[in-house]
């Protein structure tokens, strides 16, 4: 301290070392699928020059305020922060606020902690499982990766929160396509002569304002028919969660479940949380895990909902393994109808995960000729494939 | 320790204006001010996002310029508009008196510009606070033309040139997450998510806003609210609803909350028939959990 020049130099090299570590932290975030933008990095670096670096709370908050731009990313950020810096968001709580007892914490915080511990435990159990399978030990950050390829059938209860997170983070937004019809528009690029002229007649034939028009966007709408008979039980649960996420991005997605009867559950999927939606669905659907009459159900669907939902601009997605106890002829004629009336027919079959799978059961064999895309759906990765197909 | 002091100062000053703000928010505000970056506040409706801007403007003694967003908002109503009538009059005047030495281009000067909120925030010598409220209600195009404003603090007027802020305003953007904002916009901002307050903090808020309420009663209200938010309602009550409710209970002169009070005041908390029904049906349960 006696030599000011030297201490300044010391400080300089110390802050350089810290910056290096911060940059390493950013890379660490990136590797763990946490979205990091360059601008955020620059912001964070700037922010760090404005605070007391020694103060853990400020250090954490400066990084958080700059890096986290979506509140659902906060949990992941906190976990990664904890992992990288060794201290966690619990430590940087300033002393005057940090003295709350666990009991006094708001339930929302408690819930979050609960969730965190669930994630933590799932991480552990995931590791354990892998260890049993005698595979190479995985780093924590690749849990998402392994979960992505894990069969829904083998998902543990404890892994559910992680999976939900994963489904949420899928890129579901589809591109908006321009249609061919026009609609009046303020900012359109095409002059709407017809309306302009008409407008001018009110002003004695003088064209005062040039009115414009633009192409009407064409929306891709999905109609999902999900099989909830006994053989499909496991997959339907996940698929409906997936559809729940999907509906947030594709307005006009309609969801039906079928087994021995058809039922529309679209309205239930608009509820705030997946869990509530799921419990409502299982309450309403009495034929869950029952038998299957695919053809009959499709006929019923066409009869009671067809007028409204069978349209040329919609894509039909059928989720079923094709095990059918009903009349195959009925199924065939219905599929023929769907093929003609829908834009596309996509059949998702979880059994496609078996390499040597042959569509031997009668129902599947009968339906297959009328299907445009025949896809697997047993894990998140294959669901991503499906989204790609829809986007095309 | 400079930062911590500044943070505590913000906190104390906001408290004086009856806004109970936690460290995280105080820090975000401090950083937004120091870095001259916009601060994006997200959170459920009624957690006091808009209030932050109002109070901070008050604290900093700056003028607050508020831009309420809605669908179809466009540049002419947010940045600037030419004063066409005045321009036409001027042109007529030139016509009538050609020797005045006035040129037609001169009608595109600041004199003929009507500044709208965004431009207003950039003009002038004094520092201001700009509140862009509920940006998720505006369409995506609007976000796009906010980008220049938020990152460079300047506005381009094709006929006139670029207007740059001499003093950058403190910009606060709020969103209810009705729709996702574009990343391009989010990247330009610092981000803070305001959650529902913990019961103790909510109690403080109630006492600050409705001082005539008894402390124990305020604590009970806070606990009930906190409990209510765990249930599935079509629209969960926010802090704004809490305050309405506390106000109503204070007006009724009640010393405790019973089922009758809950029935009478349910309209303060819930604005949907289904929610009111659900609340009335479950009131026993809500009270019991709080009392145990």
Structure explained in plain terms:
The complex is a heterodimer of chains A (392) and B (292). About 13% of the residues of chain A have low confidence. In chain A, the strands form two sheets. In chain A, strands 6-5-4-7-8-9 form a six-stranded mixed sheet. A three-stranded antiparallel sheet of chain A has the order 1-3-2. Chain A has three domains: 143 residues, no CATH class; 42 residues, no CATH class; 171 residues, Rossmann fold (3-Layer(aba) Sandwich). In chain A, strand 8, helix 14 and strand 9 form a beta-alpha-beta unit. Chain A is built from 15 helices and nine strands. Helices cover 48% and strands 12% of the residues of chain A. Chain A is an alpha/beta fold and 392 residues long. Chain B is of the alpha/beta class and 292 residues long. Chain B folds into three domains: 154 residues, Rossmann fold (3-Layer(aba) Sandwich); 36 residues, no CATH class; 91 residues. In chain B, 51% of the residues lie in helices and 14% in strands. Chain B has 13 helices and nine strands. In chain B, the strands form three sheets. A five-stranded parallel sheet of chain B has the order 2-5-8-1-9. In chain B, strand 6 and strand 7 form a beta hairpin. In chain B, helix 1 packs across helix 2 and helix 9 packs across helix 11. The mean pLDDT of chain B is 87. Chains A and B meet through helix 2, helix 3 and helix 5 of A and helix 1, helix 2, helix 8 and strand 9 of B.
